[in-house]
Amino acid sequence: MSAAEDPTAARLATQPFFRGWEGDLLRRLAPGVRERTYAPGEPLLREGDPADRFVLVLDGKVALEIVLPDRPPITVQTVGAGEVIGWSWLVAPHRWRVDARAVKATRTLEIPGGALRSALDANPTDGYRFLLRLLPVVAERLEHTRIQLLDLHGH
């Protein structure tokens, strides 16, 4: 069965992160994909918890936050429809490094991190292509974090 014949794989293929993806990766991931809904204020993930999934935001808004002792959380970036959350599932020790909280009602597609790691390991070409798509996301998140830290310290 091709990605076009599998409804979940076809749905993944419509997401900006995977748009134009060639090969059978999406079809192989489809059985584990879950759609989730989060209410405003509900956490999607918490720093230190096991990083077990790659999150594609279908609609809604999610605040990525750094929590400091005795201070309110610092929002480093807000992401919405078509964006992705999480790369900690890819890097040992597979623990979230930030909090993510729904700012408004949010729907996601979530791919199990272990299944995605295995699929990328099994096909280095897919792994390389995936990293080429993920690296700009990581760079953008780091830049937003840097800007927030500069603002926090008045620079």
Share of helix, binned: 25-40%
Mean pLDDT score, rounded?
Answer: 91
End-to-end Cα distance: 55 Å
Q: What is CATH's topology name?
A: Jelly Rolls
Please state the structural category: alpha+beta
CATH class categorisation: Mainly Beta
Number of domains: 1
Strand tally is 6
In CATH, the homologous superfamily goes by the name: Jelly Rolls
Largest sheet: 6 strands, antiparallel
Low-confidence stretches: none
Shape: globular
Element string (H = helix, E = strand): HHEEEEEEHH
CATH architecture: Sandwich
Q: Helical element count?
A: 4
Q: For the CA atoms, what is the radius of gyration?
A: 16 Å
**Beta-strand level of the residues, as a percent range?**
25-35%
Helix and strand layout, with pairings?
Elements: H1 7-13, H2 25-29, E1 34-38, E2 43-45, E3 53-66, E4 74-80, E5 84-85, E6 99-112, H3 113-122, H4 124-152
Antiparallel strand pairs: 1-6, 2-6, 3-4, 3-5, 3-6
Helix pairs in contact: 3-4
